Amino acid sequence: MTSTPARTAAPDLASLIGRSAEVVHRVGDKDAATNWGNDLPVLATPVLLWLSEIAAMKVIDPAVTDQDMTVGLAHDSAHLAPTPVGEEVTVSATLTAVEGRKLVFDVEARDPAATVLSGRHTRAVIDRARFTAKLAPRLGTADRSA
Q1: Would you state the pLDDT for residue 12?
Q2: Are 116 and 31 in contact (CB under 8 A)?
Q3: What is the DSSP string of 92-140?
Q4: What angle do CA 105, 88, 57 make, to 5 degrees?
Q5: Assessment of whether the complete model's pTM goes beyond 0.70
Q6: Helix (H, G, I), strand (E, B) or coil at 50
Q7: 11 vs 116: CA distance, rounded Å
Q8: What are the tens digits of pLDDT across the range 16-32?
Q9: What whole-number distance in Å separates Cα of residue 94 and Cα of residue 59?
Q10: DSSP, residue by residue, 12-41
Q11: What number is the average pLDDT over the span 74-101?
C-alpha cells in the first residue's frame, strides 16, 4: 500500500493584503520594443507586464508553499509612457484582495520621468503537481508506457 504525503493547508494569503514588493530593472537592449516588431528603443510592453508579474510574485512568495505555485490570470494595465533603453524602471505590486485562490494586485511602474504603468494584475494559487502533470503530455515529458 502506498500513501501520499498529507497536503498542508493553503497559506493564509489574506493576511498579506496591503503588502507590497518592488522590482528595479535597468532597461537593456534585450527589453526593447525593437525585439517585438517596433522600431523604437524603449521598454516593450510585454516586458513591462512581466516585470509587474515578478513584483506580484515577490509579494506572496514567502507564503506560497512548495506544493503550490502561482500563475498569471489577467492583466488590466495601461502602458502610459515610454522608458528608453538605459533608464531604470521601478515596478511595484500591492496585494489588494484575496478571492479564494485568486490574488489581486495593484501594479505601478515609474521611471525617472513619469509613471509608465498603472493597473491591476490577477494571479491564482494552484497545486504544482496537478499543473505539471497536466502539462507534461504537451511538453512530451509524460511517461508514455502507462
Answers
A1: 82
A2: no
A3: EEEEEEEETTEEEEEEEEE-SS-EEEEEEEEEEEEEHHHHHHHHHHHHT
A4: 25
A5: yes
A6: helix
A7: 33
A8: 999 999 999 999 999 99
A9: 7
A10: -GGGGTT-EEEEEEE--GGGBGGGGT--S-
A11: 97
Burial of 17 (0-12, 13-18, 19+ CB in 10 A): middle
Averaged pLDDT for residues 129-137? 93
How many other C-beta atoms lie within 10 A of the C-beta of residue 25? Answer: 22
pLDDT greater than 70 at residue 6: no
CA distance 80 to 26: 18
The rounded distance, in Å, linking the Cα atoms of 2 and 6 is 12
CA 99 – CA 13 distance, rounded (Å) = 10
Give the separation between CA 60 and CA 69, rounded to whole angstroms: 10
3-state secondary structure of 51: helix
Give the tens place of pLDDT for each residue, 52-69.
999 999 999 989 989 999
Q: How many other C-beta atoms can be found within 10 angstroms of the C-beta atom of residue 55?
A: 25
